[in-house]
Amino acid sequence: MPTARRALARFVAPAATALLATLVAAPAASAMPAGTIVETCDNICIDGVRAATHDGYDRIVFDLGTGTLPQVSITQSASPGYGMPSGETKNLAITGSSYLFAEFSPARAGDYAETNPVVKPFSLPTVKGVQYLYEQHSQPGFGISLNGPISRYNVFTLTSPNRVVIDIYR
């Protein structure tokens, strides 16, 4: 009988240890799907953009990765034209009656153009669309096409998770 217990212990103990290790490691291993690549940027990454309407204003949210929040400079324009780093002038793909151009510094677009539409239309009262324009010297630019004139806008940042928010008032 003692020999049978030793033989059983020799097989059961390693199997139990392997099973326990698998159960403990399973949540960590499944936290990230196989083949997922974690994006890294030397500055903060811009991961996506979304928008929604609220009473009296439309809100655009730029979702960011980890890192130091960027400064955002906004330029208002009546024209859809913007200058490329090469000196070429282009127009936003979605026409509006007024426009905002946002530049983030320092930040990186990372794989934004590969994982998001370059031109993202919205059917909101004020916001018609957001377009990724370019990135030069860690300063990605976006164009925002608007319906009608805007009375004012407010830009601010939020954390946990990191975001840049632009509220555009009607």
What does this structure look like?
By secondary structure, the protein is of the alpha+beta class. Helices cover 19% and strands 43% of the residues. The strands form three sheets. The chain has a five-stranded antiparallel β-sheet, with no helix packed on it. Strands 1-2-11-10 form a four-stranded antiparallel β-sheet, with no helix packed on it. The N and C termini lie far apart (86 Å).
Chart the SSEs and their pairings:
Blueprint: H1 2-30, E1 46-54, E2 57-64, E3 71-77, E4 81-83, E5 89-91, E6 98-105, H2 112-115, E7 119-121, E8 127-136, E9 139-146, E10 152-158, E11 163-169
Antiparallel strand pairs: 1-2, 2-11, 3-6, 4-5, 6-9, 7-8, 8-9, 10-11
Order of helices and strands: HEEEEEEHEEEEE
For the biggest β-sheet, the strand order reads 3-6-9-8-7
Number of helices: 2
Structural class computed from helices and strand pairing: alpha+beta
Shape: globular
As an assembly, this protein is single chain
How many whole angstroms does the radius of gyration measure? 25 Å
Beta-strand proportion: 35-45%
The portion of residues assigned to helices is: 10-25%
Please outline the major beta sheet: 5 strands, antiparallel
**Average pLDDT level:** 83
Count of strand segments = 11
Termini gap: 86 Å
Can you tell me the residue ranges where pLDDT is under 50 for at least 5 consecutive residues?
15-36
